[in-house]
Design brief:
Layout lengths: L1 E5 L2 E7 L2 E6 H6 L12 H5 L8 E5 L24 H13 L4 E5 L9 H10 L3 E6 L6 H6 L5 E5 L5 H7 L4 H14 L3 E7 L7 H10 L4 E6 L11 H4 L3 H17 L3 E4 L16 H6 L11 E4 L5 E2 L10 H5 L13 H4 L4 H8 L9 H8 L1
Parallel strand pairs: 4-5, 4-11, 5-6, 6-7, 7-8, 8-9, 9-10
Antiparallel strand pairs: 1-2, 2-3, 11-12
This protein binds iron/sulfur cluster (2 copies).
One iron/sulfur cluster (SF4) binds next to helix 13 and helix 15.
C-alpha cells in the first residue's frame, strides 16, 4: 500500500489498478495521521487545489520512425533519447512529489534498449509504470523485458482502412503481432484506439478484435490537434457532430458486449454530454471518469524534462491558466462541470484560440445555436 496525505484525507493505492480517495476518518482507520494538514475544517480543506499530480506522463524519447500523420509530438527518426541516468533522476523527482502512476510515452519508447530497466526503476521508487507503443520493433525478447510494467498499451486504431485512416499507414498487423508477443510473455496489455471520423464506425469490429487478441482494456482517445495533427486536416478528421451524438450509446453497447474494460480519455468526457443517456457528474465520478485534469492531477514532462500541464499542451503553456475550467456559459452552470472541467483545452485552443469552453461539446454547440 502507498498513501499520500491530503487536506481531505488521503489518496491510497492498494495495488496496480486501485487508487482511492479516503476521507480523514477512512485514512485514520488505516493508521494514517494528517497532522497539520487535517487541522482546518473539511469544507475549507476541500476547496484547496491538488497539491501535486497523481499521474505524470514522461516522454522517454522523441525518436520514432513510424511517421504517423497525426503524431501529437511531431516525433521523427532523428529525435532525442535522454540517457538512462537523466530519466531515472526525473522519475526520482516524480516519486518524491507523491505521484502514483507514471505513463511512459514518446516518440516510440520501444526504441530504447533500457525501457524495462526504466520501468523497474520507477517500480523501485513506488511508482506504477505503464507505457504506450505502436508495437514497431517488438520482439519476444523485448516483450519479456517489459514485465515490470503494470500494463503496455498498444496503439490499435482498427483493422485495415480504420488504422490507416488515423495514422497514414496500415500498422494493424504490427500492433497485432506485438499483442501476441506480449500475451506469450505474460505481460498485461491493452489497446489505445483513437476515434476519428474514419475509425469511429469500425469501433465495434476493432474492440471485438482486440478482445479476441487478449487485450484486457481498451482506452478510447479523442483525436487532438497537437503536433502534426494541429493542421487544417484536423477539422475533417475529428468526429462529426452526428458521431458525437451517438458516442454514449455506442460506448454503453460495447461495454456490455465485450469482456475487456472500456476507458475513455480525459478529452472524450465532454462528448458524453449529448445523446440521451443524461449522465451527471456524480455518476461519472463513481466510475472514476476524469475530464480535463491538465495541471491538476495530471502533469507531463517533455523529452527535455520541462513540465507541461498535459502531454498535448504546447511548450510554455501556463499551468495556472490550463488548470482552471472556463467560467463562460454553458460550462459555468453545466451539471458535468465538476468532472468535465470545460472540456479539452487543446481542442478549444486550436479551434477557437481560447482555452474553453470546448467547441465540440454537444452542450456548447447547442448553447451557440441558441
Ligand atoms: S458544457 Fe462545458 S462543462 Fe459541460 S460538458 Fe460541455 S464542455 Fe463540459
Ligand atoms: S487539455 Fe485536458 S482534456 Fe485535453 S488532453 Fe490535456 S488533460 Fe486531456
Amino acid at each position: 500500500m502507498r498513501a499520500r496525505l491530503e487536506p481531505f484525507g488521503a489518496w491510497v493505492r492498494t495495488n496496480d489498478a486501485t487508487l482511492v480517495a479516503l476521507s480523514r476518518a477512512g485514512a485514520k482507520r488505516l493508521g494514517l495521521d494528517g497532522g497539520e494538514l487535517w487541522r482546518d475544517p473539511i469544507e475549507a480543506a476541500s476547496a484547496t487545489r491538488p497539491r501535486a499530480p497523481l499521474e505524470v506522463h514522461v516522454a522517454v524519447t522523441s525518436r520514432c520512425a513510424a511517421g504517423c500523420t497525426g503524431c501529437y509530438l511531431d516525433a521523427r527518426p532523428d529525435g532525442d533519447s535522454p540517457p538512462f541516468d537523466e530519466l531515472a533522476a526525473r522519475l526520482d523527482a516524480v516519486a518524491a512529489r507523491g505521484a502514483f502512476t507514471v505513463a511512459f510515452g514518446g516518440g516510440e519508447p520501444l526504441g530504447r534498449a533500457d525501457l524495462g530497466e526504466l520501468a523497474a526503476h520507477a517500480r523501485a521508487r513506488g511508482l506504477v509504470p505503464v507505457v504506450t507503443t505502436s508495437g514497431l520493433g517488438m520482439t519476444a525478447e523485448k516483450a519479456a523485458r517489459l514485465a515490470p510494467f503494470a500494463q503496455v498499451n498498444v496503439s490499435y486504431d482498427g483493422v485495415g482502412a480504420a488504422y490507416e485512416g488515423v495514422r497514414g499507414f496500415d500498422g494493424a498487423a504490427v500492433a497485432e503481432r506485438a499483442m501476441a508477443l506480449l500475451q506469450a510473455a505474460g505481460v498485461p496489455f491493452g489497446v489505445n484506439v483513437v476515434l476519428t471520423r474514419g475509425s469511429f464506425d469500425a469501433l465495434p469490429e476493432t474492440l471485438a478484435r482486440a478482445d479476441a487478441l487478449g487485450a484486457r482494456e481498451a482506452q478510447l482517445l479523442r483525436y487532438k490537434p497537437a503536433g502534426r495533427a494541429a493542421s487544417l486536416t484536423y477539422l475533417e478528421t475529428r468526429l462529426t457532430p452526428e458521431q458525437v451524438e451517438r458516442l454514449p450509446r455506442v460506448l454503453e453497447e460495447q461495454s456490455r458486449a465485450r469482456s475487456l474494460s472500456l476507458r475513455v480519455d480525459c478529452a472524450l468526457v465532454p462528448l458524453l454530454s449529448g445523446g440521451d443517456l443524461d449522465l451527471d457528474a456524480e455518476q461519472l465520478g463513481r466510475f472514476g471518469v476524469f475530464g480535463c485534469e491538465a495541471g491538476r492531477h495530471l502533469e507531463a514532462l517533455d523529452v527535455t524534462g520541462a513540465a507541461r500541464p498535459c502531454s498535448f499542451a504546447p511548450e510554455g503553456a501556463d499551468r495556472g491558466a490550463w488548470r482552471e475550467p472556463p467560467s463562460d456559459a454553458p460550462c459555468a452552470t453545466c451539471s458535468l462541470r465538476a468532472v468535465c472541467r470545460g472540456g479539452c483545452k487543446v481542442v478549444a485552443r486550436h479551434v477557437t484560440g481560447d482555452l474553453g469552453p470546448d467547441p465540440e461539446c454537444p452542450r456548447v454547440r447547442a448553447h451557440a445555436r441558441a
